């Protein structure tokens, strides 16, 4: 079975790059603070993208409602979406910003990258791959990923590799945010596989996630699938990373997502 996919490991700790600012900010590529549906002012998104983004978002929400039921604003999907937008609007202004822009692109050391490549090659060599991956469990009617179209997949990392990644990412975080005296590890999700057509709605991470890292492990795509972040400057930045590269970001205050479908 052949999949178009981006495979990533994600790690979070408690407590720039080749990306360039786009000539737009909030609520342009995808709803961030305010919903496109029923909005009286779509001039910003229409000016940059025409009506394409509004149509895509309407289909996105329709797909969720068709899966989980309900009608329009009274559906569970719409309530979940309202919670995403509310968190994006309210949480960042209550947080402390630790860096000037809020994100950084870097890469793994050769030693760690070689270990990660060897591990993933072993996973892919299994006779039952990709069936050996398990579907990621999303809460009912959650709108962060269009899992109603196809499941994102997961695979755990072994204990030794987890520790190596923790140590390296923590060191990179300390170098990036030297004003923080200590870090506490929160979660290392393991390997997440996004598949063709997936969209990751822009969001902020809930407490206790403060600073996070995304590692590109492997990919099979026809075009780059950038992470769009709203920097502390208020502009959208598209960050593209290749296997072995890493995005560090202040996930509690930096709105981040992949609003364009994976191809």
Descriptive tags:
5 helices; 263 residues; five-stranded antiparallel β-sheet; globular; alpha+beta
DSSP strand count: 12
Strand line-up in the sheet with most strands = 3-11-8-1-6-5-4
Please bin the fraction of helical residues.
25-40%
Q: Termini, distance in Å? A: 17 Å
Strand content: 15-25%
Number of helices: 5
Shape, please? Answer: globular
Helix-strand sequence: EEHHHEHEEHEEEEEEE
Structural class: alpha+beta
What is the average per-residue confidence, as pLDDT, rounded to a whole number?
Answer: 90
Unreliable spans are: 12-20
Describe the sheet with the most strands.
Answer: 7 strands, antiparallel
Radius of gyration: 18 Å
Description:
27% of the residues lie in helices and 24% in strands. The protein is α+β, with helices and mostly antiparallel strands and 263 residues long. Strands 3-11-8-1-6-5-4 form a 7-stranded antiparallel sheet, covered by helices on one side. Strand 9 and strand 10 form a beta hairpin. The longest helix has 18 residues, at 159-176.
